[in-house]
Fold each of these.
Amino acid sequence: MSPMEPPVRAQYKRMAASYDRCWRGYLDATLGALKAWVGPVRGLAVLDVACGTGEWARRVGPAQAQQLVGVDLTPGMLGIAAQKLATWPEVLLAQASASSLPFASSSFDLVVTASAFHYFPDPVTALREMARVTRPGGRVVVLDWCRDFWLCQLCDVVLRRLDPAHHACYTQRELHACFAQAGLHVAAAQRLRVQTIWGIMVTTGVPSGAVPVP
């Protein structure tokens, strides 16, 4: 890792080629849950923050969306995503940080991020950016580990000591507080287990005073 390279980018640069294979079961469970939670994306402009190898985009079917944009810090992950999604002209991929999204305000109907929130060094700023690029009536959806579950509590303690890319794992209440600080009203939320042991949470936020699209 170079002195200026963020730890999370260095980590996923090493993991890019094997990521889908190593995490197949987890991806099937969590991205399946996210797909069901979000529902149809037909006709929507969608942004996937920390999109990784483009697995969620592939699963929702980019041709359904009016536009599907994925951003990630790691060129290697984006390269794999580009291969998967090459046949869909609706897809745009870009290297960018969640805390500084290179898009105009009110650009998207739906903004999602999956299993990446615990890596964000400034989660409220990231949520503010997601809210900024969301159109009135749009949705911001976050799926991540939940520290209300004992395994995630253990992972959080271990990873804080051993993994320089890991920032923090949150309880559902803490995540909702971050939403509020970012100007997002929590419209729906759920905690659930996947693969028996993993505890995750999924939360939909809308800009304060807005009504989400169907």
Amino acid sequence: MTHLPRKEQKRRGHFLIEFAIVTPLLATLLFGVTDVGMILTTANTVSQVCRNANVLVVRGIDMSTAANQSLLMRTAQGLGLNQAGTYTPDPNGKGVIYLTKVMLVGPNECNAGITNWDQKPADCPNYNQYVIASYLAIGNSTQWVSPIGKPATTVQSNGSLYDSDIATNTGNRAKGFGAGGAITLTLDQYTFVSEVYVSGVGLDVFHMFTQPFIHMRNLT
């Protein structure tokens, strides 16, 4: 039986101790790098879905129909937004897509929403205010809430709000627009906003700090 010299045994013992100390750190770094890579890949897909959603809305595609929502879901594979084996949005899935039309209410909308409006801004409650003109939530809308807000009044089957509610109901005002906000519009001008939220992203290595999720927004 061969015996190692005392110095060699001591050196090997130090190596094993150092290896035991360093291994957890190296493993954490490895998983962390993998996690970041997965998050970046997912973020790229989410960005594409967000952009695709806005393009469809801008082109006049009715995104309230199941067929058109399925078109969008085809580009969101792997994000957990659709029901397994289908292109149908999952109301209990890992994310949601919000499609919102925001308008700065002006004379045209006040005339459309108020019968015999007297042209006085004071008699049109939402005059010169940013208001949600249409609103659709595709997917699981219970976990994430759009910072723009949610209409306080009835939304039609196609997502549009009634002209009277746009002009008069202050509960339909949008948040985060105008000076210092996402965009500044002129009276009766509007913008389409698509937002995508996806949770459960990556390996969740650092879950002790925060729940990993991705949020993307696109305005047109």
